[in-house]
Each structure stands twice: as structure tokens, then as C-alpha cells.
Amino acid sequence: MAAVLMKERNISAVVVGADRVVANGDTANKIGTYQLALAAKYHKVPFYVSAPSTSIDMALMSGDEIEIEERPSCEMMFINNVPIAAPGVNCWNPSFDVTPAELITGGIVTELGVFPASELLNKFKTEEREAASLVLSIG
Hints:
Layout: H1 2-8, E1 14-16, E2 20-22, E3 27-30, H2 33-42, E4 47-50, E5 56-57, H3 74-77, E6 78-79, E7 82-83, E8 96-99, E9 107-110, E10 113-115, H4 120-138
Parallel strand pairs: 1-4, 2-5, 4-9
Antiparallel strand pairs: 2-3, 3-8, 6-7, 9-10
Pfam families: IF-2B (PF01008)
Protein name: Methylthioribose-1-phosphate isomerase
Family: Belongs to the eIF-2B alpha/beta/delta subunits family.
């Protein structure tokens, strides 16, 4: 429905949350976020990620380094212990997906402002240096 909504209605922006944002701006969020970003890019709708600065992990350089939790396949293959999938069927059940920074066309929204994903590393490294200087000058 989201892609059709972007196609048929005058959508001004898509805003999603994030569980983790890494240094290059790649973002991990609940499964389905990546496909929303792809649809937004196709339909030229700005795509924003909103997260507190505490969700930004400068220790990881790219989304390839984010460990993605996989849920048990039985969650999708059984309801109340009753099988709903054909015998022999298997499934993959990741909890999160990673949206590449280049699809975050609007920016990353934090309590410190809105930043293009490409500027995240420089901005937050500067913030860390300023915070360390402040601690040293107070101490």
C-alpha cells in the first residue's frame, strides 16, 4: 500500500525511526524500512530517518557491520502450534533490515538537527571532540 500511496497521493515525505545509524549513514530499522526507502526514491518522495543521537553508532562504519537479529522461523509457520505452511517449506525471519544511506534523501533527524547521511560522520565526530573538550575544561 505504501508504494501505491506514494504514486497516487501527494505525499510530501516519509519519516521512519531507527534502531541504529552507523557512521556512513546506513540505518537499521524494523523489517520493511528498506522497501519504503526504495519506493520513496522511485517516487521522488524525500525519505527521512528520525532517531536520537544515542542511536548513532560511530564505531561501525557501514550497515554491512550491523548484526541483524533473526527470529525463529516457527513464528511465521505456526499459529497457536498449528502449522500454516506446507510441509518442507522453510522461511527466513529477520527482525530488521538495513537502509543504505543513499536512499535517505531527506536526511537524518536528531535532537541536534537534520543532517544529510553523507555528513553524519563529520558532524558527530566534531560533536564528540567538542564534548571531550568541554569535559576537560570543566574537570
